[in-house]
Write a structure and sequence with these properties.
This protein has 195 residues and is mainly beta. The chain has helices at 3-7, 121-127, 173-176, 187-194; strands at 30-37, 41-49, 52-58, 70-78, 87-89, 97-109, 129-135, 140-147, 157-161. The chain has one domain. It has 4 helices and 9 strands; from the N terminus they run H-E-E-E-E-E-E-H-E-E-E-H-H. It binds manganese (II) ion (MN).
Length: 195
């Protein structure tokens, strides 16, 4: 299931999970957003769908302003265990740089068809329209991921906050919240403690 993930990595050099242990749980799927100081700083947005973490690299990170769309570039499926990974990938290895668990929690699928019937997460992913309500420590409420199907950005997705009580155009969590939701550490502390 994670051949592409495994082929990119040398597990004698990186402490990232090898991806053959933890099982998924579709009743209470998880999400994680990892701040990743690779060659270009970005936020990896991952949703548990069909036993894997579907993944997107979001260069600017999530916004909670519904009028702001953030580019989300799809990346390879990651094993469920990856949601617990915080540390530093050695320089020279794939994705070399420090990884912080910026936010983690659970989510529910809120994508419905015209008859108000639920569209499954797998189907949502295949159709290129995902709507979830997340319950994290930093972020809450509805988020949509929409795949662009034409134009020069075709194949990339857009991440947007849906309008609800957790939307706020005047607050930027990426700028304001800079510590790990799991360990409380800063990027510099994670980097220092890993070396
Ligand atoms: Mn990344």
């Amino acid at each position: 299931m994670h051949e592409e993930y495994q082929a990119k990595r040398d597990f004698t050099k990186t402490k990232e999970p090898q991806g053959n242990s933890r099982k998924g749980n579709d009743l209470c799927p998880i999400f994680v957003i990892q701040k990743h100081a690779a060659s270009n700083l970005h936020y990896d947005f991952r949703l548990e769908i069909s036993g894997t973490l579907k993944s997107w690299a979001v260069p600017k990170g999530p916004s909670i302003d519904p009028s702001t769309k953030r580019m989300a570039i799809p990346t390879e499926d990651h094993p469920i265990d990856y949601a617990w990974f915080e540390g530093t990938i050695p320089q020279g290895e794939y994705g070399g740089g420090t990884v912080m668990i910026w936010d983690k929690g659970t989510f529910v699928n809120i994508n419905k068809d015209k008859n108000a019937a639920e569209i499954s997460l797998e189907e949502s992913y295949q159709q290129g329209r995902i709507e979830v309500r997340i319950e994290g420590k930093k972020l809450r409420g509805g988020f949509a991921l929409i795949k662009m199907k034409s134009g020069k950005m075709a194949g990339n997705w857009l991440l947007t906050k849906m309008k609800d009580e957790f939307a706020n155009p005047d607050y930027d969590p990426v700028q304001s919240e800079t510590l790990s939701s799991e360990s409380g550490r800063s990027m510099a502390e994670i980097a220092a403690q890993e070396s």
